[in-house]
Amino acid sequence: MADRPVVATYSLAACDLEAGQWGVATQSKFLAVGSVVPWAEPQVGAVATQAYANPAYGPDGLALLRSGLDAETVVERLTGADDGREHRQLGVVDAAGGSATYTGRECMAWAGGIAGPCFAAQGNILVGADTVDALAAAFTAAEGRPLAERLLDALAAAQAAGGDRRGQQSAALLVVERDGGYAGLSDVLVDLRVDDHPEPVAELRRLYGLHSLLFGRTSRDDWVQVDDTLRAELAERLARLGYDGELEQAFARWAGTENLEERVDGIERVDPVVLEELRAR
Predict the structure, then answer these.
(1) What's the CA gap between 32 and 104, in Å, rounded?
(2) Residues 62 and 118 grouped into a single domain
(3) Which of 57, 104, 216, 224 would be 49's cystine partner, CB 3.0–4.6 Å?
(4) Which domain holds residue 122?
(5) Looking at the 3D structure of the chain, how many domains does it have?
(6) 62 within a domain of the structure (yes/no)
(7) What own/partner pairs with CB < 8 Å and gap ≥ 24 does 182-189 have?
(8) CA distances from 123 to 16, 34, 129 (A)
(9) pTM value > 0.90
(10) Are 138 and 250 within one domain?
């Protein structure tokens, strides 16, 4: 296997059962780690495959989870059927939050993992065990926050604890939720990748900030009622930007141009995030 690239990586497969979300976050000294490691399906589970990675562990693992097998059994089935198992590393979280992690005996040091309620943390070619310990500790400590944010915090904590001993190059964040994606027509809530960057975890967090701005959800209770004064302000600001005509249509055209259409629903009430963006123009 010496002729194959090593996905020297730390990763966290996890879920938030209350929110109905499953996801994987990963960082590596490897180009485009997000193209190999993370796999997830809502109400089914999450899989991270790495080291001398077997990419088939992703779809095959999800198929086994979909059939009702738990995380430990899925790991046993995948590795048991693979002659290269001693070079593989794998983390699995199932539909019930059960978890399992596997590190083959031939994975390059330091390599290992920790499994706990709703998470499986693992890494190889790391500075030391502190990286995986930090993944698990940061994820557990952030309970109650959105899954994507917990995964990002865990990546950052792992990097601060040493990370991949070869350095940094790429990172990825995948979170799925049934009908939770764009326009309610996709299960992909977050799918962000940094394929080649000197500080990929920091860049991934920046991208997530943009994603939250464009596609985040503000409680309707917090939307701003559009009274006559605000209507006049909106019309004036939109006209200044070249969006004339009937207010609702002008507002929708501007929001679409700025990729904020997911945060707009008529003109009776306005998402405060959208209002702030318009006022900043």
Answers:
(1) 23
(2) yes
(3) 57
(4) 9-215
(5) 2
(6) yes
(7) 182/215, 182/262, 183/262, 187/41, 187/42, 189/21, 189/148
(8) 22, 15, 9
(9) yes
(10) no
